[in-house]
Design a protein that fits this description.
Layout: E1 3-7, H1 15-29, E2 33-39, E3 61-63, H2 113-119, E4 123-127, H3 131-142, E5 148-152, H4 154-159, E6 166-169, H5 179-185, E7 191-194, H6 197-200, E8 207-208, E9 227-234, H7 241-250, E10 257-264, H8 270-281, E11 287-291, H9 295-299, E12 304-307, H10 317-325, E13 329-332, H11 337-341, E14 348-349, H12 354-366, H13 369-386, H14 389-402
Parallel strand pairs: 1-2, 1-5, 2-4, 3-4, 5-6, 6-7, 7-8, 9-10, 9-12, 10-11, 12-13, 13-14
Helix pairs in contact: 1-14, 7-8, 7-12, 10-13
Protein name: Glycosyltransferase involved in cell wall biosynthesis
Region (Disordered): 64-106
Biased composition (Low complexity): 72-81
Length: 405
C-alpha cells in the first residue's frame, strides 16, 4: 500500500478539509504517495505548487469528472445524507473548525480544498462541484481502483459505500436524519475514525484519532490592559456568539475586555447572521473586527481565546490551536471541548449560560500574569501530549499497520 487517496467532503474548506490536508502531510512524512479527490469550486485551478519543507513539488491537477450518469451500484442520490455537503449547514463534516480559510490571505475569499492540496504538491482529481453529481462521479472514478481510499466525511463514504479498502473518517456526528446514510456509508469499510472520545461514545465501533494542529508556539509576552479576547470562526448562532455578546454586554462590570473578532458569517443562514451582527453591534467599540485571518495571526494578537459553542463540537480546533500557541482559552462544555482542554482546565462553562461565561471571562481578565502563564503552560503540555503532529504521526502509523494488507 504505497498510495493513499484522500476524498474530500466539500469543495470549500471546513474543519474536515483542514484535517484532510493535515492527514496528507503526515502520510507523506510516513513515505506514502498521497492523492486528493474532491468536488471542484468555481475559478481556475492552481497547479503551481511547493512541496513540504520548502521542497519543490509541482502538483498535477487531473480533470477526473465522470459522466454523472451513475456507475453500476451507485447509491441513489436521493439518499445522500441531508446536510452532508454543500454550504448550507456549516461545511458538513467540520470538527469545530475555526472557520478561518487557510490560504485565504485575509482576503475573505477562501481557496478551495483542491487548490490548497495542489499548492502543497499533492496530485488532485477535480470532480463536479454539485454534490449529487460529485457522488455519482466519485463512485465511477473510484471503480476498479485498488489504493486505500480515506473518506473524510459522509459524502465520499456514501458515494463509495459497499466497497472495501476504505477508511471512513467522520469529522461531524451524523444527525438522526443521516443515520441510515451513515450505516450505508460504512458498509464493508475497514475502519471508522472519529476525532474525540465524546464522538466515539455516539458512534458505535469507531476508533478515536484525535485531531492535531501545527505548532503555533511563539512565547507570548505579558498580557496588557484592556485584555484582548479573541474569537476565531464562523459568526453563527450555533457557535455561541449571541451568548458571548450577552456575557460581554452585561456581565463584566468594570473589567476592561476587548473582543478581537476573526472570521465571518460563512456556512450560516441569513437570519442567524443578522441576529449575530446586531448583538455584536451593541458592543460598540469594544469589538475589533479583523476578518478572515490565519489562526497564528490572531493568536499572536490576543491574550486569550473564547470558544463559546452551543452546538456539540466533535473536536474543537480553535481550542487546540490556542493550546499550541500558549494562549489561555475559555470554552463551553459543548461536545468534545472540555475533553480537548482537559479535566483540570479552569475556564469551562455550561454551553448557553451567559452568566457563567461572564464569570469565566472576568476570572481570566482579572487574573495576574503569572496565573495566565501557568494556565498557558499546562495547555501547552497537554497539546504536546495529545494534539501535536509528532503524536498524531505515531497514532497514524499504528492505524495503518492495523489495516489489512
Amino acid at each position: 500500500m504505497s498510495t493513499v487517496i484522500l476524498a474530500a467532503n466539500n469543495g470549500q474548506v471546513g474543519g474536515g478539509e483542514v484535517m484532510l490536508l493535515a492527514t496528507g502531510r503526515l502520510l507523506r512524512d510516513l513515505g506514502y504517495d498521497v492523492e486528493v479527490v474532491g468536488p471542484g469550486t468555481p475559478g481556475p485551478a492552481r497547479t503551481a505548487a511547493t512541496g513540504m519543507a520548502g521542497t519543490p513539488g509541482p502538483a498535477r491537477t487531473v480533470a477526473a469528472g465522470g459522466t454523472g450518469t451513475g456507475a453500476s451500484g451507485t447509491p441513489r442520490t436521493s439518499g445522500v445524507p441531508a446536510g452532508a455537503g454543500g454550504t448550507g449547514t456549516g461545511a458538513s463534516g467540520t470538527s469545530g473548525t475555526s472557520g478561518v480559510p487557510r490560504g485565504a490571505g485575509g482576503s475573505g475569499e477562501a481557496d478551495g480544498i483542491l487548490d490548497l492540496a495542489a499548492s502543497e504538491g499533492f496530485t488532485v482529481h477535480r470532480l463536479a462541484a454539485d454534490r449529487r453529481r460529485y457522488v455519482h462521479e466519485l463512485r465511477a472514478w473510484h471503480g476498479g481502483r485498488r489504493e486505500l481510499l480515506w473518506c473524510h466525511g459522509l459524502v465520499p463514504a456514501f458515494a463509495t459505500a459497499g466497497r472495501p479498502r476504505r477508511v471512513v473518517h467522520l469529522h461531524k456526528l451524523p444527525t438522526r436524519a443521516q443515520h441510515a446514510g451513515y450505516l450505508t456509508a460504512r458498509s464493508r469499510s475497514w475502519l471508522t475514525l472519529v476525532p474525540s472520545r465524546w464522538m466515539a461514545a455516539q458512534v458505535p465501533h469507531a476508533r478515536v484519532l484525535p485531531n492535531w494542529t501545527p505548532d503555533l508556539w511563539y512565547a507570548p509576552g505579558p498580557a496588557g490592559r484592556p485584555r484582548r479576547l479573541g474569537y476565531l470562526g464562523r459568526h453563527a448562532v450555533d457557535k455561541g456568539l449571541l451568548v458571548l455578546a450577552e456575557a460581554l454586554a452585561t456581565g463584566l462590570g468594570d473589567e476592561p475586555v476587548r473582543l478581537v473578532l476573526a472570521g465571518g458569517p460563512r456556512f450560516t443562514d441569513e437570519a442567524g447572521a443578522r441576529r449575530v451582527a446586531a448583538a455584536l453591534e451593541r458592543l460598540g467599540d469594544r469589538v475589533e473586527r479583523v476578518g478572515w485571518v490565519e489562526p497564528a495571526e490572531l493568536l499572536r494578537d490576543v491574550d486569550g481565546l473564547v470558544v463559546p459553542s452551543l452546538a456539540p463540537e466533535s473536536f474543537g480546533l480553535p481550542a487546540a490551536e490556542a493550546m499550541s500557541a500558549g494562549v489561555p482559552c475559555i470554552v463551553s462544555d459543548a461536545g468534545a471541548l472540555s475533553d480537548v482542554v482537559g479535566p483540570d482546565h479552569p475556564w469551562v462553562v455550561p454551553a448557553g449560560d451567559a452568566a457563567a461565561l461572564a464569570v469565566a471571562v472576568r476570572s481570566w481578565a482579572s487574573a495576574p500574569g503569572s496565573r495566565l502563564e501557568e494556565v498557558a503552560r499546562a495547555q501547552r503540555e497537554r497539546w504536546q501530549a495529545e494534539h501535536s503532529p509528532d503524536v498524531a504521526r505515531e497514532r497514524l502509523r499504528g492505524i495503518l499497520a492495523s489495516l489489512p494488507a
